[in-house]
Amino acid sequence: xxxxxxxxxxxxxxxxxxxxxxxxxxxxxxxxxxxxxxxxxxxxxxxxxxxxxxxxxxxxxxxxxxxxxxxxxxxxxxxxxxxxxxxxxxxxxxxxxxxxxxxxxxxxxxxxxxxxxxxxxxxxxxxxxxxxxxxxxxxxxxxxxxxxxxxxxxxxxxxxxxxxxxxxxxxxxxxxxxxxxxxxxxxxxxxxxxxxxxxxxxxxxxxxxxxxxxxxxxxxxxxxxxxxxxxxxxxxxxxxxxxxxxxxxxxxxxxxxxxxxxxxxxxxxxxxxxxxxxxxxxxxxxxxxxxxxxxxxxxxxxxxxxxxxxxxxxxxxxxxxxxxxxxxxxxxxxxxxxxxxxxxxxxxxxxxxxxxxxxxxxxxxxxxxxxxxxxxxxxxxxxxxxxxxxxxxxxxxxxxxxxxx
Length: 405
Fold this sequence. Notes:
The protein is mostly beta strands. It has 2 helices and 30 strands. Residues 3-13, 26-35 and 395-405 have low confidence and may be disordered.
């Protein structure tokens, strides 16, 4: 799972990140006819409005079984009580925040630590006490010529019963012999032991898989999005899905690896949809078709329907044989081919308690004349359960996830 959360809560809600607002929404009408409209439980205004939030996570830092909400704007990070939105912690990191991820307890206090990838190329690991937040270790520095670092909790992949962390660095050149480039690297760290020895190398390093012939080094960002997808190989450790929505001439690709770095499979976007947005967001770790093995999803925000209208799509793949299980197409043309298109933000969680993974899909501007944000919840194979729509003239939503509170 991206951002390191397996959803085992009875009450599942979701969080939507909009320009200058964080909305916590949910459904309480199970058993009523679907699609059932969803209303916000509460919203949190972010001031000043130009400091819009760009990183969001749900994490149980208090160890009470209930998720808090962590979000960042600029170099500001705030932790909210997931139940009522009250601010629990507010602190600054040295530079702007790329991404944040709760990844489990490495200090033994029962609450999750928080990884924060910063614009200085470092990943800070924070722990939280009644005194406040403090840094327990720092990973990096990593190259940031492409300004992003992705994070994902892997669970325990080093057999020490302590969770580990994957870090995607899209601008790490793994092969650079012009005019051929292969750019991007994913690292898996044993974070607990870096607290003891900060110079420990990653336990696994996965290099970019597609060499790109080009005059530009800005093609091929392997590791742009990463997510643990659960144990599909049966070795007891979670496996990893890694995307690169810009490689292969903009077609986009995604790769499946074991946590030990063994290659398992490749998925390639549709060459008729360029730039495709294939792999702009990914997720996994839930059994979508109830065959006993976790499945995973790949967003394809520039996918086209039979009329060749750009509507976006989400593809669900089997963790057993990598076959396509389902494709859910957007229902309205959109002008967004990257951030904002249907499938550019996706999340998996069991929102209706039937044991299957449900899909939460974000879509901006589903009708081109109106700047509208829409979040839809689907279950197997492509049934619409719930939908929430918000018209926002100030900007677009860009991160969504389920939360148990």
